[in-house]
Amino acid sequence: MIFVTGPLFSGKADYARTLCPEDKLLLNAHELADGKRDPAALADALAARYAVVTAAEVGGGVVPVDPVQRSRREAAGRLSCLLAARADTVVRVFCGIPTAIKGELP
Predict the structure, then answer these.
(1) Band of the pLDDT at 60, cuts 50, 70, 90?
(2) How far is CA 50 from CA 1, 62, 66, in A?
(3) How far apart are CA 90 and CA 54, in angstroms?
(4) HEC assignment per residue over 26-83
(5) How far is CA 30 from CA 8, 17, 36, 101, 104, in A?
(6) How many degrees, rounded to 5, is the angle at CA 106 between CA 76 and CA 6?
(7) What is the pLDDT of residues 10-54, one digit of tens each?
């Protein structure tokens, strides 16, 4: 599995679409992290089902004041870490430029 991450609107989706057919691509996996599911089981299921998974970076910026929003952000960050651990390749896209941070660019 290839995990593609980066800031919002950085070109992740456009890059990911060049890597595989749409039925093997999951965009915005961070939206599935709600803190109610087992994140490791979710990461296993996503890694088994999809060839390419994208998620927005959530570690930078202002920490939300609302506890529910903070919890969602933490769950999204944990899921991204688990997906990166399971991936053969991790790519960070910034300003439309992909950079391999684990493995090699496809």
Answers:
(1) confident
(2) 7, 31, 32
(3) 10
(4) ECCHHHHCCCCCCHHHHHHHHHHHCCEEEEECCCCCCCCCCHHHHHHHHHHHHHHHHH
(5) 11, 17, 13, 19, 23
(6) 30
(7) 999 999 999 999 999 999 999 999 877 899 999 999 999 999 999
How far, rounded to the nearest angstrom, does the alpha carbon of residue 86 sit from its chain's CA centroid? 12
88, 64 contact by CB (below 8 A): no
Find, among 97, 72, 80, the residue nearest to 15 by Cα.
Answer: 97
- Phi-psi sector, 45: left (phi>0), alpha (psi -120 to 50), beta: alpha
**Range in 36-40, 48-52, 73-77, 101-105 with the lowest mean pLDDT:** 36-40
CATH H-level, domain 2-102: superfamily? P-loop containing nucleotide triphosphate hydrolases (3.40.50.300)
Distances (CA, A) of 65 to 37, 57, 70, 72, 80: 23, 18, 7, 12, 22
